[in-house]
Structure formats: C-alpha cells, structure tokens
Amino acid sequence: MSALESKPSLDDSYMLPASESEASTSIQIEPTSAEPQKLPIRSSFEYGEEVAEDEGLLSGKGMPPWLAGQKRARLPSVAVIASAILGAILLLLLILALTAGYRFERPSRLRGYNPTSGNDLKLSGEDLGWNISLSDEILAQRSMKERECLMAFPLNLPEIKQAVEWTKSLGGVTLSDVEHSGEIWHARLMIKDGRLFVKRFRPAYQSRCQAVMAAIHDAIITSLEPVPDIEFVIGLDDTAPFEPATWGLARRLDLPAWLVIDYGFNAWPEPMIKGWHTFLADVKSVNAQMTWRQKAKKLFWRGVYLSEYREQLRDHTVNESWADIAAVDWGRPEETRVSMSHHSRFAYVAATEGGDAYSGRLKYLLSTQSTVVSHPLRWQQHFHPALNGNESSPDQNIAYTKDGYNDIVETMKKLMSDPVRSEMIAKNAEKVFTRRYFSDAARSCYWRSAFRGYRSVMTFEPAYDGSEVDYESFMLMNELEWRPHK
User: Fold this and answer.
1) Does the domain made of 276-433 have the CATH classification 3.40.50.2000?
2) Whole-Å CA distances, 200 to 182, 221, 249, 480
3) Distance (Å, whole) CA 347 – CA 224
4) pLDDT tens-digit readout, 374-398
5) What is the DSSP pairing of strand 37-41 with strand 25-29?
6) Conformational region of residue 31, where left means phi above 0, alpha means psi within -120 to 50, and beta covers everything else
7) C or N: which end of the chain has fewer Cβ atoms within 10 Å?
8) Hey, where are the domains in the chain?
C-alpha cells in the first residue's frame, strides 16, 4: 500500500500527554508569575487535554481621572438588584443553549488550523493536506507541543506507529534488549530527567553518531513539554538493525524497525556536504537564477556504481542526449565531484539506492526544486510516508520507474513530453519536503513523538547506574572516559 493510500490514524495512545490526574510525578519550572507552576511528567502517553496553561490577568492601578471626585451613587433597590440577577440568569441560559455541543479551545500558536483533541482527530490520505502552506516562522519553530505537531505533520506518524505495533507484538522493550544491543551497536543512550546521557559508545562510520546524538539533544532541550525517560541504542550502519531496542537509519520495506532522522540533516562533511541550512541556502541561490523551465533538460546523476540499479541507469542512458550520467572518482574528487546544489541546475535528477542499503542522497535531491526520478524504493526512511508517486494525483512529488532503471527511457520520454506535470512534481516536492517535512519544526516533532512511542512499549524504568556520561561532556571529549588535562 502506498503512502497516499494509507490512512494513518492519530488516535494512538502514545502520542500525547495523559490528563493531569494520571501524572505520577511533577517537576518545578520557572513561571512568569510569582507563584511556582508544576508540570506533570507523564507515566503514560494517552490523548488528553492541554495542561499547565497560562492564565492572563487584567489589572490596573487607581481610578480613571474622570471618576475622581465623583459622589458615591445611591445603592440600587432590592427590586432592581433582583431584576438584574434574573436578567443575567436568562442571558446565561440563552448563551448555553446557543453554544450547546461547541468546544472552546485555546487558540493555537499555529496559524491556519484549529486544534482539536486527539480523540476527535481522524486524518486519512485524502485529507492530509499535502500542499498545506506553513509560514517560515512555524517551520523554524522547534518547540511545538505534541498536539500542534500532530496537526502540522501527520505523516511523521506512520513510521513510529509501525515500530510501536511491532514492538508490542514482541512483548515490549526489556532492559536485557537494551543491554544486548548496547554491546553490539554504536551508542547506548538514556534520556532521564529531561537530559541526554551516553552509557556506551563506539564510533560509527564517519561522523554519523555525533550528528544523530546532536539532533536528539536538540529535540530534548527545545521541548516545552516533559520528555519521557527512555533508554535505547542507535545503530547507524546503512541498514537498521532488526532489534526492538535499536534505532537505525532505514529499514527494509518488509522488516519493521525504529528509525532515527538521517544524520545528513545535521551535516555530512565527509563527502563535502556542509550543514543542512547551508545546503538549502546554496540551492536557493542557484534556483534564484533560473526557473524550472530554464533548467537544463537533462537527467543528472553522479555517484559510484555500487548497485544493480546504478548500473542499469548507466547502461540504458549511455546513448541518450538527455542523460548526464557519470561516476565520481573519490581518488580525484576535485575533478569529478559535483556539489549537491549544482544538481539544481538540471530539470531532472536521478535517485538510486545502494547495493543493499538506502541512499542518503534522496533528501538532498527532493530539496533541489528539480524533478526527482527514482526506481521503486526498497528501503524506508522516516519521511518516506510523504512520498507520492501516484501519476494520477495532483500532489505527486516524485516520479517512479516501473522496472528498476530498465524502463528509464520510456519514463523520461513521458516526463519530457509533459513539462507542465514534470514542473508540478518538482514544485510539490518543495512544498511537501523543503517547506514542511524537512523543516526544523517537523524534525523536532518527529523525534519527540518517537520518544513517546518508544516509552509506551518499554517494560523497565531507566536508571542512573554510574556508567552514564552527560551529553555535554561527551560532546566535547567524544569519549566516555578520559584523563584530566591529557
């Protein structure tokens, strides 16, 4: 079933904080008023009402000048008072009658939608609002509350939901699951009391582990709501481990897994791709120089021929004038490497998975404002539910071949003969990904929803045991033990 055909439901029990009566403990926060305010730390993650809302008070000092010196008015008679009370009661009854069944909600900080309680909220593939417009202010907001996240980014949920259901079927995550996976994979992490700790660490390939931990830490410290205590492992090889306590980069379509957000959303310095926002600024600069219609009408790809799909792409386009397909020689990167922002100069860009793994390039290609062409994907990342390859949909945001890259010639002829639709695909990708699911807001929302989902299937309570090192220290030393002043 495609992402468009799926009907993700947001009435899952792990996504929103429980009502205040279900809180097990509380923490003190610094309020804006003189009296301290308490926010509950949730022991269960069920839909409920917003808690700890601020109440504004209107106050003033002294009397208006025009009242100064006025004589005290005569007190009204008992009959007048009784009439006033009766009138107020009748008015109140009228208001109650007119507003029966109406829900009063606190206005959301998000413009463009009215929040509703999770229990009443049902979204399906038909009403997800693929091309919803969110302001730059909202897209940069890393502190959205969970209900706002659900409304703004519903397609964050499917990957979390599949992981929750799978883990439930295994009986939940046990401490022994975490201990076992922690001995194998790259980092054993604990979120406790709103802080990130590292219990075990061994470097992953390149800078992946540091990038993912930085993103996790950012999601914790920007949260306006309590973050649940959890303990888990991250394994950052190209394929996600098939283990309930381990979070990975991508999963095979037929295998469930917990997914992290790709490290490249932080930065990927090894292939010379700088920070995410630097990349977006470079792309914006290129696209400011040309419209989609003015881009080179070619299918562009650079990479290493590591997989059957990549070889198919090379072999089937070798004699095509519309193809610019070539390999990168990392022994001579200055001569053969092409920046990701340079891809934006081409109307069509090709996406290819690796030999037996996902490709970290897709997120960049979807952000180039070019039309992304891909073979059917075998690997799933956290944002893939938002991909729409339906050729009959006005919201299509990626073009798929049908038979690997064996039919790339037919696919390209069809796309190039319909530039209106090709341009629409590129514009939809920008709206859905660059302007929505790849935003700072969406990524922070995904992390915190994943924390809640994982907490809902844990069978143990994370605990300090002396092995943990706070993330702030680890970030500077990049190890768990060190000699002073070494």
Assistant:
1) yes
2) 7, 21, 19, 7
3) 41
4) 999 999 999 999 999 999 999 999 9
5) antiparallel
6) beta
7) C
8) 136-267+440-477, 276-433
